[in-house]
Design goal:
150 residues; mainly alpha; 2 strands; 5% strand
Length: 150
């Protein structure tokens, strides 16, 4: 109970002084997933600017993991992992198992990204730059030791 009173009085003191509450410290892996989502959004915007709208991306088929898949599905899958799957894993099960799942998925997504980087329709400078920034970020996934550092 004392813990709640201390939190209440601390919040009240900050409010009376007009100070904002301290920013929550976030593990490095959370920061990494948010940045990955932001970079995937940049890829989608770059594709739009270079004439690859959503319908074109749906019509453009690639061979990934031994099956035909649309460019749109591939890009949205990588974005979904960053925006939904990784945060869900981190929220529901903290520890090495959730991190191993993230690492495995990231490795597969990185393989997909290599295929995208070499595809003939994605050779425009804008899209290549955006994809390269995503690849660079994927390669910098925090290690197990760094993942929970704040």
């Amino acid at each position: 109970m004392m813990r709640y009173w201390r939190a209440f009085w601390g919040a009240l003191r900050l409010t009376l002084r007009g100070e904002p509450p301290p920013a929550p410290k976030q593990p490095a892996i959370v920061v990494w997933t948010r940045e990955l989502e932001r970079r995937m959004d940049a890829v989608l915007r770059a594709a739009e600017r270079d004439g690859l709208d959503e319908n074109t991306r749906r019509a453009l088929k690639l061979r990934l993991d031994g099956r035909q898949m649309s460019l749109e599905t591939a890009l949205q899958s990588i974005r979904f992992h960053a925006a939904q799957e990784y945060p869900s894993l981190l929220h529901n099960s903290i520890g090495a198992r959730s991190l191993n799942a993230i690492y495995a998925s990231n490795m597969n997504d990185r393989y997909w990204l290599n295929t995208l980087l070499s595809h003939e329709r994605l050779q425009t400078p804008t899209v290549q730059a955006a994809l390269s920034r995503v690849a660079e970020h994927m390669d910098a996934v925090p290690s197990l030791e760094q993942a929970w550092a704040m």
